Amino acid sequence: MNEIRTVACIGDSITFAPSMAIFGVTEPWVDQLTAALERTARPRRGDGFRGLWRDDEWAQSGSWTQPETADPFDVAPFRRGLYSSGCAADELVWIKPATLTVHAFDIYSFPVPGAGGWQYRVDDGPWSDIPEPRAVNHDKIHRHSVDQPVGQQVTIRGHDGSAPRVAPVMGIETFSTSTEGVVVHNLGHQLQTLTQFCRASAGDPLALLDELRPDLVVVMFSNDVLFRNPDRFAHAIEALVARVAPYADVLLMTPFEQRTDRCVDDALTTAGSTELISPSALFTVTDEGKSIHGTNIAIGTQIRRVHSVERVTMTAAATGASSHGELMVASKRDRALQASYRAVTRATAEALGCPMLDLADAWQASVGAGWDAAYAAGLMSDGLHPNQNGHDDIAKRVIEALGL
User: Fold this and answer.
1) Distance between CA atoms of 74 and 112, rounded to whole angstroms?
2) pLDDT per residue over 316-353, tens digit each?
3) Are residues 64 and 133 in the same domain?
4) Do 222 and 193 fall into the same domain?
5) What pLDDT band is residue 138 in, cutting at 50, 70 and 90?
6) Side by side, which strands form the sheet with 46-51?
7) Helix axes 29-40, 388-401, angle to 10 degrees
8) What 8-state DSSP symbol labels residue 77?
9) Distance CA 404, CA 402 (A)
């Protein structure tokens, strides 16, 4: 690979989610990759693009609208852009994480008809104008650069100081230094998919990548398996690789195996009670909402809440009592289907000449096959997500794959 200074990591909650801290993940694999690049290349220039899906960083008031795929200005990643009503001083607030140092920043917007002349302010400072962009037909994304440090927050409003205006916002990029250096853009979005990132649209969903022009794009999604369409996933990979080929290398990653259906025969139920106990079912928070079947369990019942690894409550009361009943916990992540997604990713990577890191194969070689082995080895926090040990392992393998 060429010299790596700018990286875009695209993925779902394994790449970024505000809930990582809840599972004890304080150093996600993307942050560890950033640190490795700093050690081997040059200092960090900033902390990259902060999308509106970072719910822990963005707050809004007033009326804001998300573009539709029929809109020619549908250019934000995962369709997560917003534009204000133009009828009131609608506000968006970016709240700076305590771990970030921000000496300057860029506000990213997109060309909604009638937009322009809106304002921002830093902390409790005065309102400053964001001028109307030049009318250029091929303009897809606009940046407004602000050479000013941020202590706590940046507030954006749909107002020009005299009257309400339409303000389109898709995110902010922060800089900790004015010198050239490493930037890693974490474009992970919890609950999302690659096929949504590369969606069919009247706009240009991949426009941000052209704007950022990373040297390397790292891609890993686990949620597309829910669509049960591996070929569609392969086509999304092809579209993404073709788009960034003029300026970026691509590292494709496939996730570890996530939890599949499981059956136990030690379920304890009490007639008329929603409590369900099993010493061996090993319940985790990602079991909430899953369908369950078995002895004295009414048809259509789901797990309402997980209280511990042995105890849950159900959405319907048990129809009878048993101390050793059968229990099946359903999963939408079928083992064979997950394998088929990994297979098409591997085939697509080979056809396009992209390097690939298969975490399922890697973890099978080191701890054994499947979710049960990964959980027993202390790599998983629940049925879907790695814990800190898991992130450490992923980071180590990515860093090795990149030759850092």
Assistant:
1) 9
2) 999 999 999 999 999 999 999 999 999 999 999 999 99
3) yes
4) yes
5) very low
6) 46-51, 171-175, 104-109, 142-146
7) 40
8) G
9) 6
What's the domain range around 166? 46-178
CATH number, domain containing residue 112: 2.60.120.260
Is the per-residue pLDDT at 137 higher than 50? no
Final residue belonging to a domain, choices 132, 155, 178: 178
Residue with token string 């025969």: 265
Work out how many domains the chain is built from and give that number: 3
- 190, 115: one domain: no
What are 160-200's pLDDT values in tens digits? 999 999 999 999 999 998 778 899 999 999 999 999 999 99
Pick the closest to residue 306 from 323, 322, 326, 292 (CA basis).
292
* Strand (E) or helix (H) holding 211: helix 207-212
Q: What pLDDT does 1 receive?
A: 62
Identify whether residues 76 and 170 lie together within a single domain: yes
- Beta-bridge mates of residue 311: 277
pLDDT at 131 over 90: no
Q: What is the pLDDT of residues 233-266, one digit of tens each?
A: 999 999 999 999 999 999 999 999 999 999 999 9
CB 69 within 8 A of CB 197: no
Q: What is the mean pLDDT of residues 98-116?
A: 93
DSSP letters spanning 346-396: HHHHHHHT--EEEHHHHHHHHH-SHHHHHHHTT-BSSSS-B-HHHHHHHHH
The residue from 178, 207, 238 where one domain ends is 178
Q: Tokens 């590369």 identify what position?
A: 198
| One domain for residues 187 and 248 | yes
Both structure tokens of 45: 């220039």
**Domain check: are 214 and 345 in the same one?**
yes
- pTM > 0.70: yes
Note whether 304 and 349 are within 8 A (CB).
no
| Separation between Cα atoms, residue 313 and residue 316, nearest integer Å | 9
Which H helix or E strand runs over 239? Answer: helix 230-244
